[in-house]
Amino acid sequence: MADAFQLLDSGVQRWVHRQGWTDLRDIQKKAVEPVLSGKSDVVISASTAAGKTEAAFLPACSAVAGEADGFGILYLSPLKALINDQYRRLESICDMLDMEVTPWHGDSSQSKKKSARQYPKGILLITPESLESRLVLDPGWVKASFGSLRYIIIDEYHCFVGSERGTHLLSLMHRLENLLGRQRSPIPRIALSATLGDMNGVMSSLRPNSDFPRLLITGGGGMNLKLQVRGYVSRISAERGDEDPEESSEELLSDLQIARELYGILRGDSHLVFANTRRRTEKFAVLLSDLCVENAVPNEFFPHHGSLSKEFREELESRLQKGRLPTTAVCTMTLELGIDIGKIKSVAQVAAPNSVSSLRQRLGRSGRRGEPAMLSVFITEKELTGISGIVDKLRMELLQSIAIIHLLLKEKWYEPPDPGLFHFSTLLHQVLAMTAQWGGVRADQLWSVLCESGVFSRVTAEQFEALLRHMGKQHLITQISGGELALGPEGEKIVGHYGFYAVFKTPQEYRIVIEEEGKTLGTLPIDSFLLPGQHIIFAGGRWEVRDVDMEKRVVCVAPTRGGNPPRFGGDGMSVHDRVRQEMLRIYMEGDHCVESGGKRREFMDAAAKRLFSEGLRFFRDVGLANKRVIGLGKDVYLIPWMGDKIVNTLSVLLNMGGYKTNKFAGVVEIEGASSSDVSSHLRSFSKDNRPTNAELAKLVENKQAEKYDHLLPEELLNEDYGARAFDIDGTIGWIAETTERGYI
Which residue has the higher pLDDT, 459 or 322? Predict the structure, then answer.
């Protein structure tokens, strides 16, 4: 093997040989020296199954081999399931090195946790929330146990970037270094990430406000992909059946048609079907299961999403890992992440993907062991009638799918993190956590650790002071003798609750239990409307609700026929500017094919091509190439071909002028207006005449999106929501550019 292999510990070398490897992968060779040196942070970026985990752990384990005093490696994961998976993967190498590896989360055995408390050593696998609980409840143990920490490895880092949970993770790592006195000798951070668009931004986000060196290592090579997009038209049926009145019969017919094709394509092997939402996941899982019953064959189609019980999900994951039986998981983003689920032949997508990065992650689940990745996209558009809307006429869902595929394959672009967010909710949480951790802490210490040198660097001193004053008024914190801050009575209640350690919302939920067996199928948000006698689809089965116990929050169900998936909520995602700009470019050029190797590549079936032609024809007929505001019937439509933040901003600017608007698929519908009036109103805004994002947020009634938003002062809530939902600078720029071109 190459020289990089010789730098590894002899025990690690023996483990590599026992795997039957003839050589390390390229990405693993590149990582050995920089990880061993410990002189920089490292981002290891590659597709799923490219060997990222070993690229980090082989040299990291080599560096800490033989050390028995405290944890040498801290591994942080977004999911408990990933921790369990990594524990299984690391057991053999740790046995070879006589090194302890401890999984630590809510479902871990108490014996393992007790052993780690008494004799901390080796590798600790933990979620950010469990690490927070240790910092708050036992900072002395953390300081002693992590005193010789050599590395922090963050798995699936792209899932953290830009979110409140990612902000929490960065703050935790910074607080840990402060607790250990490692500000001048930072603990190297190794982030394992799928490839994202702005990798420089990803690297700088790993340690904000620091000049500690950082290195990017990429690998995995190009993508060998088999791709097809299939089009469907939903048509109205006279048969209604027992479906949800909110769900049209035409959707049911087209979904059944897709399910039949999926059944024919997928049956007999292992696949993943991504349905975007939990509701559609349940729908397609049961439609496919029904087809197995109809054909008198064993079921091999099962749902997988976050509301299902741990046991149900783990049974499915185990079945996929073993690979003994053909198994298709119909899932949400829960199986985007790198849990080992064995060999997956193909990936299907039964709705337009929301982001390029998400589709890339999903694709990485297939194409292992040298085989090409396989992707089938199933897109349904409505049959056009005399009352069809502009979104249907433009075939927006199909167009968005095409644009995302173009950006993925041709541009190799992925959505970058949003650098303009404040995350005041998470900052409030961290003030409470640090105050609880220390018992008493000065305001200037909080400012120094959390804002001045920490992740909340966008927060001004004035904003931080306003937050602390408001927290004092709400009795979350109080000032004690000596000027230090301590938890107030309301703060103690919040920190003392078991759900405190997570910065994301954990809504109250019903437990769904099979009446006769007492087996828990999973949970549903408590605002889901369930009544005795109602039929629902859940966990891939059809159930009758027998009893709803509001006090115990338990719903008893029994098997039945019929039913519809319950409403889950929380499944929406925002579309980026670049995706909608690519949609416009495709219609401007009138060509959906992707260029590869100097050739135009066709990837759509005949039905999808017809739908594309229909949308393109309408685009040209109404002159959208050089027009952004058009009148159709009694209403006016604004099509900016920009992302949801700019669409949101344009909608609110129109509301300020007294216009009534609706938004869908990047289009703003303005009721009962004229095109000239709408254009004139938009042109009235400029760099010198515009509201701020925070001022726009004042016009929104429900702004409480993050966990502790309800505890924020109104001015900070407006700043926070405004930065997340609006882009006034981008919108004013768009208005100026389109005005100059005569498009509005």
Answer: 459
Q: Are 655 and 661 in contact (CB under 8 A)?
A: yes
Among 22-36, 311-325, 369-383, top mean pLDDT goes to 22-36
Structural contact between residues 70 and 144, judged by C-beta atoms closer than 8 angstroms: yes
* CA–CA dist 697, 691 (Å, integer): 10
> 593 in helix, strand or coil?
coil
pLDDT beyond 70 at 367 = no
Task: Burial-class residue 533 by CB neighbours within 10 Å (0-12, 13-18, 19+).
Answer: exposed
Res. 508 pLDDT band, cuts 50 70 90: low
The burial of 322, by beta-carbon neighbours within 10 Å (0-12 exposed, 13-18 middle, 19 or more buried), is given as exposed
Task: Kindly state the helix (H) or strand (E) to which residue 637 belongs, with its residue range.
Answer: strand 635-638
Residues β-bridged to residue 308: 522
Closest CA to 580 of 351, 734, 693, 683: 734
| Contact between 642 and 730 (Cβ < 8 Å) | yes
**Cβ–Cβ under 8 Å, residues 419 and 606:** no
Cβ pair 487, 477 in contact under 8 A: yes
Q: Which pLDDT tens digit goes with each residue over 577-626?
A: 999 999 999 999 999 998 876 788 899 999 999 999 999 999 999 999 99
Q: What is the tally of helices (H) and strands (E) in the chain?
A: 27, 26
Give the amino acid at 666.
G
| pTM beyond 0.85 | yes
| Of 743, 697, 690, residue with least CA distance to 723 | 697
Q: Give the integer Cα–Cα distance in Å for 660 and 670.
A: 6
Query: How much of the chain is helix, strand and coil, in % rounded to 5?
Result: 45, 20, 40
Distance CA 665, CA 667 (A): 6
Residue 549's DSSP bridge partners are 554
Element (H, E) at 348: strand 346-349
Tokens coding 708? 């502790």
Cβ proximity of 532 and 546 under 8 Å: yes
Q: Is 218 helix (H, G, I), strand (E, B) or coil?
A: strand
Residue type, 562: G
- Show Cβ contacts of residue 519 under 8 Å, excluding neighbours closer than 6 positions: 513
Q: Which two tokens stand for residue 392?
A: 């249907």
For residue 655, give the nearest of 704, 715, 700, 721 by alpha carbon. 700
Contact between 376 and 349 (Cβ < 8 Å): yes
Cβ-contact 205, 160 below 8 angstroms: no
Enter the tokens of residue 690. 């515009």
pLDDT tens for residues 147-182? 999 999 999 898 888 889 999 999 999 999 999 999
The CA R_g of the chain, rounded to the nearest whole Å, is 27
Count CB-CB contacts under 10 A for residue 97: 20
Q: What is the mean pLDDT of the chain?
A: 89
The pLDDT > 70 percentage for the chain reads 93
DSSP H or E segment with residue 272? strand 271-274
CA atoms within 13 A on the CB side of 96: 19
Quote the crossing angle between the two packed helices 80-97 and 10-18, to the nearest 10°.
Answer: 110
Tokens at 722, concatenated: 């405004």
pLDDT at 506 over 60: yes
Summarised one tens digit per residue, pLDDT across range 654-696 is: 999 999 999 999 999 998 899 999 999 999 999 999 999 999 9
For residue 450, the 8-state DSSP code is I
Task: Please give the pLDDT value at position 179.
Answer: 97
Half-sphere exposure of 409 (CA within 13 A, CB side): 23
For residues 542-571, average pLDDT: 80
Q: Long-range pairs for 643-648 at CB < 8 Å and ≥24 separation?
A: 643/574, 643/575, 643/576, 643/577, 643/578, 643/579, 643/580, 644/574, 644/575, 645/574, 645/577, 645/725, 645/726, 645/727, 645/730, 646/577, 646/727, 646/730, 646/731, 646/734, 648/725, 648/726
Adjacent-strand bridge partners of 559: 543
* Residue listed under structure tokens 């590549």: 601
Per-position b or e across 596-615, b if 16+ CB within 10 A of its CB: eeeeeeebbeebbeebbebb
Pairing of strands 541-549, 535-538: antiparallel
Residue 37: which residues within 8 A CB-CB, separation 6 or more?
A: none
